[in-house]
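Anyone else keep sequences and structure tokens together like this?

Example one:
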Amino acid sequence: MTDSELVGEEQQVQAELLAIRREIRNEQQRCRRQLARSSQCRGSQRLLHEAVATYCLSGYDLATAQVYMQVRGGLEMSVDQGRLIEDTFLIWPIDDIVKLSFPTTDQEDVLRRKVLTFLAEKNTVAWVSTQNEDHGFAPSPAETFAEYCRLLGDLAPHEPSSRRAQKIIRLLRLRWHVSFRKYEPHDDSTTEERSIMVCTSIHFCLFCNSFCFYPRPDY
């Protein structure tokens, strides 16, 4: 191949590369416009930002990110909502994703703490569900608060007080509809019956690692 042919081939490759980059920029702009329109309909940009952060810090668990939007923003879970979270994640800068684990500013640290606190709440409620199903009744508020602190890890209060415990238990009751009513199982209770106890006592069921909320029953 002659030098002129090499130069011509290089110019062709450069032209194709520019065209690809142009298509990428156009697609990114289209995604941003679509996300902006979608977020106006389905929730604030801030809520979406926090949901994507939850998606990252939960190990890329989309259902958990959707639960965040449901619990924190009062939005119903939907397929479009999941796509919105995934599409937003795809255009996030890599540096922003890294900063979720290694924050460099107070604002980044606040976001990280907010998401990790949510995950501790969610996993505490899941633990209550497991304990309820295994033993036939929910753990005590003190045991639940201890599990919540364990899940918080370094973010847990160094000297947890009874007032702090009461505040967290009240939050779980109001935000997650957790009830600590005791349900004594009869001797021949089955797994299915225990599962019903869980749904009745804490007002939701775990299904495919996502939450489906049930109406509060009349006592």
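And example two:
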Amino acid sequence: MGWDADAQVWRKLVCNAAGKLIIDPSEILEDSPTNNEVGKAPTSNWAFDHNANASAHHTRYTDTESRAAIGNLLDSTGKVLKTINFNYQELIYARNTKYQSASASTRIVVLQPVTNQTVLQIYAYQPGGSTYAAFVDVHNGTVYERLATEVIVDSKILTHKNIADAHHARYTDAEAVAAVGYNGTKYWSCRGINFHAEYPASSVIQLTANGNLIVGADGVQLFAHVALPHGATITNVIVTGNAAASAESWYLERCLLSGVSPGLMASAAINTADSTITSPVVDNSTYAYYLVTDTMDTSDEIYGAIIEYTL
């Protein structure tokens, strides 16, 4: 009998003729182990097969075996040396006649930095012999000896910074601007024919072959669009004309692209410059810029306009 804790009663259990409890082995055993399964164990069948499977196990690599697998060797101090096998005649042998007379056998080249880490030494080795001092035991007890000549390559790791020809001072912002020609004063200009009358259908104006604009009646106001680089700083403005036009004034204005109210930036009499600029930095993302004159009289002439600016 077994106690049913939920129903609070005793229940008969299934047994064989000998009175042994009959259970389902798959509830506590599985033929192939499942990851993260803590309620079951592998069967003896699986354990036997796994133990007999030679490819399922191997001896862990030692550090030496790991280095040997990728072709690395250790010198006498325990440092890793990377070796390259090649025919020694491929070396530049002009500095050592022994390279010319030796037999064409394989040599080993080792790159090894010296103590101060500023010089890279390239060594060529040959097995056996006693002509030169032994350098390192690299394989199965065979001593490889350094040839008489060593090629020294200065890596400049520490000395490079002291070579004047290898460096120059970093450009400052001002030098970079100067190098591409953005420094100094720039100019925007136009001839009188760039100006237009306020009432083009009725105002009398004459555009001459030399680019001047001549007013043919009284009360004519003129306008000219100005196009300057975004970010430019306006430093000086002048509108030029004949002597008669000097009685009138010019105005540099800007107007919001989203509105109709202009703002005065500079003004003076025609033929007179103004270098006192209000809001001198050009912002083409928000404003448009233009020149405007007072009402001009008959025979007044506009020669042109000049705007100085910097970037």
